[in-house]
Amino acid sequence: MSAQPVIPDYGDPSACVARDATFCTDWFGDHWWNLFWPALVQHLELTLIAVVAGFVLAVVAAVLCHHKSWLAAPVSGVTSFLYTVPPLALFQLLVPVTGFSVLTVETALVLYSLYLLFTTILTGLREVPEDAVRAARGMGLTRWQILTKVELRLAVPSLISGLRVTTVMTIGIVAIAAYVVDQGLGSLILKALQSPFNTQFIGAGALAVALALAADGVLVLAGRLLTPWARTRRAA
Fold first, then answer.
1. Selected residue with higher pLDDT from 18 and 74
2. Is the dihedral of CA 170, 172, 175, 176 positive or negative?
3. Helix (H) or strand (E) segment spanning residue 153
4. Could you give the CA distance from residue 180 to residue 83 in angstroms, rounded to a whole number?
5. Coil/strand/helix, residue 76
6. Gyration radius of the chain's alpha carbons
7. How does DSSP classify residue 136?
8. Model-level pTM?
9. CA 114 to centroid of chain Cα atoms
10. No. of helices (H) and no. of strands (E), the chain
11. Distance between CA atoms of 187 and 176, rounded to whole angstroms?
12. pLDDT (tens digit, 9 = 90+) per residue, 75-125?
């Protein structure tokens, strides 16, 4: 007689858990604060650190390449090469150097995000109308003022576009990072794969999707708030 799968001891089982239903809302609610919420916060923290660090590096690189065009090709080549490396392979390459640590995860995430961020930021800077730059120069603005008050502001739509794609992508890769560090929603998913009880797997996966959708929505709203001239043009 074959052994039947055994549901791990999750405490006093409800009727839903006892019959091994596809998703038990009562179990999900009972374990929200001690299981799902901490993992969601960790997932968000890992994502924010990587996206912010990658964005800062990409802005610096894009600005340099915008003013020194000969740098664009080598920087683009390096970042595009890093982007072609599968995330798990990048983690494996870094583990011998930085170990199974958050530093390994964040380093890989930052390196992986650079291509999309760098490309979209540089494209946005290059698409700024030359007339706007000449007008700012004629008004006596310094090179730094032109960059911060004209070029970067007009490049905001492209910046937001790059941030949206990168943020959603990073949220997905952070789930894979559970193979390196026991953090985030990916950790719950990985552990749930070892059990026939599906609620933890489905709940963690749904939260990852919800986090990606929420982050994308926040960035869309931020883009609209930062580009009031675009709303005025559409209304006209």
1. 74
2. negative
3. helix 152-154
4. 19
5. helix
6. 23
7. H
8. 0.86
9. 11
10. 13, 0
11. 8
12. 999 999 999 998 889 998 999 999 999 999 999 999 999 999 999 999 999
Closest among 114, 104, 222, 126 to 162, alpha carbons compared: 114
Neighbours of 165 (CB within 10 A): 16
φ/ψ (deg, to 5) at 155? -90, 0
For the record, the structure tokens of 162 come out as 């790059």
- Distance spanning both ends of the chain, measured CA to CA: 75
Cα distances (angstroms) measured from residue 149 to each of 48, 128, 142? 26, 12, 10
Residue-range domains of the chain with CATH: 36-220 (1.10.3720.10)
Picking from 156, 165, 162, 119, the residue whose alpha carbon sits closest to that of residue 230 is 156
Rounded Cα distance, 174 and 178, in Å: 7
Long-range contacts, stretch 227-236, CB < 8 angstroms, 24+ apart: 227/156, 227/157, 230/157
